[in-house]
Each structure stands twice: as C-alpha cells, then as structure tokens.
Amino acid sequence: MRKTAFITGATSGIGKATAMFFAKNNINLVICGRRVEKLKTLEKELLKYTKVHTLQFDVRFKDQVEKAINSLPDDFKKIDVLINNAGNAHGLSSIQEGSIDDWDAMIDGNVKGLLYVSKSIIPQMVERNDGFIVNIGSIAGKEVYPNGNVYCASKFAVNALNKGMRLDLNKHNIRVCAIHPGLVETEFSDVRFKGDTNKAKTVYQGYKALQAEDIADIIHFVITRPYHVNIEDLIVYPTAQASATVLNKN
Ligand code: NDP
Ligand code: 8X3
C-alpha cells in the first residue's frame, strides 16, 4: 500500500523539493504552508504523480494546526511519515540589536510550530506502533555563529526535541531522524533579509551551495531504509563549507 507523507513548509525550498521527490516515488502527500496560491500550484504539478491534499495553516497557532489536521479526509488521515520542515530565520542581528518580533517568529515557528504539528500526529503513530518523523534542523542547531543567536537557539531546540522524540517514541517502534543542512539555496535568505534579494543572493555566490533537491534526495533515502534501520542524525554541508563560518568562496 502507498504511504502518506505530511510535509510542513511545502510551498518552497526543501519542503517543495521533497514533495516533488516523494510524489515521483509513489508516496501520497499532505502538503502544508501559509501561501495558498503556491500550495495550489504545487498540488497541480504533484497530482500528475500521486494523490495530494493541501492544508493551509500557520504552524505558530495551535488552533489552526489542530483544526487543519483534524479536517483531513479519510484517505489522508493515516500519516506514515511526518516531515517537520516549516521554519525560517528572521534577521541576522546581534543579541543587543535583535528584534523581538523576529525572535517570536523564530521561536514560535521553528520550535512551537514543530511541537504543535507533532502533537497532533504522534498519537496515531503511537497507536499503530509505526511511523517516521523527520525533523529538519540545521548546522545552526549544532554550532552557534555570530548574530545567529535566536535562530541557532531555535535549531538547538529542534536538535534536543529530535533526541527527546527518539527516546520517548523508542518503545512505540517509531523512527525519528534529524537532518541538519548547511547552506541550501532556497527562499531562506530572502526571508532572513526580509526581501532584500541582492543581499540574499550574495549568500549563495562564489561557491556551489546545496540545492533543495539534494536534501529531498537524502530525506527520501532516510525514509526508505528497511524498518529496522534508523538514521538518527545527519549533517549535510556543501563541499565548499566546513563549518557555520568556514566557507571556501571564490
Ligand atoms: P524556504 O524559505 O524556502 O521555505 C520555508 C518553508 O517554511 C516555506 O514553505 C514556508 O511556507 C514555511 N513556513 C515558514 N514559516 C511558517 C509558518 N509560520 N507556518 C507555516 N509554514 C511556514 O526555506 P528552506 O526550504 O531553506 O527551509 C526549510 C527548513 O530548512 C527550515 O526549517 C530551515 O530552518 C531549514 N534549513 C534551511 C537551510 C538553508 O540554508 N536554506 C539550512 C538548514 C536548515 P509559507 O511561507 O507558505 O508558510
Ligand atoms: C540555515 C543555515 O548557516 O544560515 O539553517 O544557519 S545557516
């Protein structure tokens, strides 16, 4: 029987590429995001390959999360694979100059949002003693870099939650994995720099950054291992990057 994957943050970047990769590999999809037009455009493309349901909600608001997930039609209610991917950095400022609104967006989206979605989906996995959760962390969750402060804190939290899930869900036969990418060329920097496209572009210039499809391929590899194999923690850099601050640019 075909499996169903629930992907948050599917309107762009890693989530969108993962949806496309999964669709071409016969996985049914629930795709989520706030931008409904982007969800609908992607749905049209994915429907060429698989069954798709779209859910529009903001992960920061638990009522929206619960309502959306409770609204899933019967065909999509059983979630085999949860990809906790939605998230962003907002700003790149010193701790003394950072904006509280940016901090709220990162803590609420990257941490609480991941929790709200997980809380709504984990019970069915526990009941079935079956399921896979992939948490998209970041190298920012392994290493703090200058001005990364709150974004890094949010991804350190994802790293901790991944370990917590792995421990608590162990007796329920549920696989849990975190993937921690380095620099991936997506809308991430556009969001971080609040639409300053030129500034965002320079992040990915002078070397070959990871592409969203690279991470999608790895996520698919992780979830298609035999059930007794759980890849728990994976750091992925572009070849040109050796740490959060060491980048071999031309
Ligand atoms: P994008 O900006 O391209 O995608 C982010 C996705 O998250 C969008 O689909 C967006 O959808 C969704 N999203 C953001 N905030 C919310 C919210 N409050 N509610 C619902 N959905 C939300 O970035 P990436 O694809 O690069 O990022 C995906 C994940 O990968 C993030 O967790 C990021 O931290 C992580 N990551 C990215 C790296 C990079 O260098 N790009 C490196 C390491 C990790 P919408 O706006 O439609 O709601
Ligand atoms: C995104 C990668 O280096 O901007 O998580 O933190 S980085």
Describe this structure in words.
With 250 residues, this protein is α/β, with parallel strands linked by helices. The chain has a single domain (4-236), classed as Rossmann fold, CATH 3.40.50.720. Helices cover 44% and strands 16% of the residues. It contains nine helices and nine strands. It has helices at residues 13-24, 36-46, 62-70, 74-77, 100-128, 149-168, 188-192, 197-203, 212-223; strands at residues 4-7, 28-33, 52-56, 81-84, 132-136, 175-181, 184-185, 210-211, 233-236. The strands form two sheets. A seven-stranded parallel beta sheet has the order 3-2-1-4-5-6-9, sandwiched between helices. A two-stranded parallel ribbon has the order 7-8. Strand 5 (132-136), helix 6 and strand 6 (175-181) form a beta-alpha-beta unit. Helix 1 crosses helix 9 and helix 3 packs parallel to helix 5. The longest helix has 29 residues, at 100-128. The radius of gyration is 17 Å and the shape is globular. 2-hydroxyethylsulfonic acid binds at residues 138-140, 148, 183, 244. NADPH dihydro-nicotinamide-adenine-dinucleotide phosphate is lined by residues 8-15, 33-35, 38, 58-60, 85-88, 109, 113, 136, 138, 181, 183-184, 186-188, 191, 212.
- Supply the number of structural domains: 1
Distance between the termini: 48 Å
Q: Which small molecules are bound? A: NADPH dihydro-nicotinamide-adenine-dinucleotide phosphate, 2-hydroxyethylsulfonic acid
Beta content: 15-25%
Structural class call reads alpha/beta
What is the helix content? 40-55%
SSE order, one letter for each helix or strand: EHEHEHHEHEHEEHHEHE
Mean pLDDT: 98
Tertiary shape: globular
Q: Total helix count?
A: 9
CATH topology: Rossmann fold
